[in-house]
Amino acid sequence: MSSPSDIPMAQRKRQLVANELTEAALQLLAQRGFDAVTVDEIAAVAGVSKRTFFRYFASKEDVVVRFLADMGNGMRAELAARPAAEPPSVALRHTVAVPLAACGDHAERALPVVRLIMRTPALRARFLERQAQWRDDLSVELAARLGLEARDGAEAAAPAGLYPGLAAGMALVAFDAVLQQWSDGDGTADPAGLTDSAFAVLAASLDAVPERVVVPGAADQGRAANRTA
Amino acid sequence: MSSPSDIPMAQRKRQLVANELTEAALQLLAQRGFDAVTVDEIAAVAGVSKRTFFRYFASKEDVVVRFLADMGNGMRAELAARPAAEPPSVALRHTVAVPLAACGDHAERALPVVRLIMRTPALRARFLERQAQWRDDLSVELAARLGLEARDGAEAAAPAGLYPGLAAGMALVAFDAVLQQWSDGDGTADPAGLTDSAFAVLAASLDAVPERVVVPGAADQGRAANRTA
DNA sequence: GCCAAGTGTGTCACTCGGTGTCAATGTGTG
DNA sequence: CACACATTGACACCGAGTGACACACTTGGC
């Protein structure tokens, strides 16, 4: 970037190639299956070389998973933006509900991709790995939100240190369960409704925040759990 | 196997090669990292050819993940063996506690492997994929245990249909969190204690079984949740 | 002892995912 | 026009994984 004016130009060209590549990839992969399509084919359809494909995507899985990757970024931002007064169950429910709702709204495009991911082992594995990353992100966001500052150096193994990770994990279990139900069906199921149902099950544990935490919205912050210091 | 008498013979030879292979693999991989070791090297150390390696393991990841794979089988069996009177939180806690305790007992061998898996993206991904499989297994086992028979044909998206998957998922979130904490530390942490702490957080939701389920052991199964049918 | 049949293994050749390198091209700046 | 910089294609290369074939080795029957 030698000058400010070529940023928009080169940037747009880059974006255009990326779109072309994802378009070709999703088309071919959804149609013929993940293993039956080579990277060379995808690149050829997009009009570029194999080498260029790998300059845009880290792996063959990446093209597909990236398509849903924005979800993760959106989630962390969404959680950070939720009012501090909300109990964890509500804040986390909205956090996962946003990308899920996006899926439901663009079912025509999202459903085939989600289905492809869910039933292709290699893609499912990469997707779960990404979810684990989201879990860590949500975990620190949640800890900060609740005033449970994780001391970076000494990571205490106390229950209070376990809660954020567990809560974030639970939220993502719900996320995954909804996605699975939705992709198993014919797309007519409502992700929002499924999300509400799932969080109705999880809410009890989500709002039982350990330690000295104040959760204004919750009627009673039972400091129940705290054994095995 | 042309005769019954060669089953023990050939079988033992097979087992011996498999052991040799895993031994060599774990040794090399834990020492030099996953990407820095080729399958040819592993096979050479074990005294066989690359081709033979792939006759025993489906992939390079498989050698490592298989080492912890028995966990999954053990879990389903353990859950099935728990007394029916136990509330889900207790039954599931024991279910995941068994393999976790096994890790703690054989820390010398298990810790390096767990560490390798947890911090190698490719291995972590495959491990999570396997956990997803366990989740499905535990889910059906749990449904059977609670009398929530999943009609195979028509998979209803009702809350009652969501619960088993969520509960199993929560148990595995705890499992994963404990494993992560344990592998991050120096191995002196007690998996059993961590497991108890984790389930103390999750218990409230785990025992809130929706619908007409009877959980004898639980003093109070708040059937709070059940909105948005 | 010899000869099937079956199984495990090594070798070779090959495909495909993924990476490093370099030369060519294009684009914006002085 | 000359210069720097970014992007690309072409090529070579490595490693994972697979298919095919030939060569052992074991086992059982004659």
From TrEMBL, chains A, B:
<protein>
    <submittedName>
        <fullName>TetR family transcriptional regulator</fullName>
    </submittedName>
</protein>
<feature type="domain" description="HTH tetR-type">
    <location>
        <begin position="15"/>
        <end position="75"/>
    </location>
</feature>
<keyword id="KW-0804">Transcription</keyword>
<dbReference type="InterPro" id="IPR009057">
    <property type="entry name" value="Homeodomain-like_sf"/>
</dbReference>
<feature type="DNA-binding region" description="H-T-H motif">
    <location>
        <begin position="38"/>
        <end position="57"/>
    </location>
</feature>
<dbReference type="InterPro" id="IPR001647">
    <property type="entry name" value="HTH_TetR"/>
</dbReference>
<dbReference type="GO" id="GO:0003700">
    <property type="term" value="F:DNA-binding transcription factor activity"/>
</dbReference>
<dbReference type="Pfam" id="PF17754">
    <property type="entry name" value="TetR_C_14"/>
</dbReference>
<dbReference type="InterPro" id="IPR023772">
    <property type="entry name" value="DNA-bd_HTH_TetR-type_CS"/>
</dbReference>
<dbReference type="Pfam" id="PF00440">
    <property type="entry name" value="TetR_N"/>
</dbReference>
<keyword id="KW-0805">Transcription regulation</keyword>
<dbReference type="InterPro" id="IPR041347">
    <property type="entry name" value="MftR_C"/>
</dbReference>
<keyword id="KW-0238">DNA-binding</keyword>
<dbReference type="InterPro" id="IPR050109">
    <property type="entry name" value="HTH-type_TetR-like_transc_reg"/>
</dbReference>
<dbReference type="GO" id="GO:0000976">
    <property type="term" value="F:transcription cis-regulatory region binding"/>
</dbReference>
